Amino acid sequence: MEFVERLKAHRGKTTILTGAGVSTPSGIPDFRSPNGIYSKYDPERLFDLEMFMKDPSYFYSFAIENIFTMKNAEPNIVHILIAHFEEKGLIKGVITQNIDMLHEKAGSKNVAEVHGNIKSGHCIKCGKRYSLEDIEKRAKNSPDKVARCDCNSPIKPDIVFFKEMLPETEIKKAYDMLEDSTLIVTMGTSLSVYPAASFPKVVLRNGGELVILNATPTSLDSFALEIEREPLEEFAKKVLLDIRKSGT
Q: The domain that contains 219 carries what CATH number?
């Protein structure tokens, strides 16, 4: 299989970049599809930091329906395949725009979560930290369904909002991977959100190659050596079958 052979040729020098399309088979909705999150919630209100500071209730109506249920999601075959690539030394690691922690659940070790994750949160006033379980409990037990700190200020989950700085340690981890890669594979991302959309250009600028696995066209299709439009689950099944046959 051409894809597997390409990974072998770049053994240990490949970074995978994932987006929402990797997690939709696990039952987690994406953002921009016709039935995605942004069809139900206004993105300008949902992830606007200033709006959250003024009135966090809109965000928490979304959190109760979507974020708190993410902790029950299980990795799908795509997450498992990526973890297998790392275990076998075929890739350096994975950079993800997803906040669901499913790469970690699947067994991936070197993961850069550039948009943060749902594992924890902090008070926007005093900075006290809380686990996801604590945040959920406080939100559901609150009269206005907003998780509040002991100081009564809202608790913000550690996911990146608009106008908010990306987590420095995760961005550094991502660029360390990219600068040392000769191949980048994008999976389930439209490459429309920055700075993640610019990550493939780092590898390309250094003379590397790009493979795109996404159901719809992206702005970087013209730079890719290989493009697959097949549903990621089906593609992953074929790759795993090829790997088993070849003993990779």
A: 3.40.50.1220
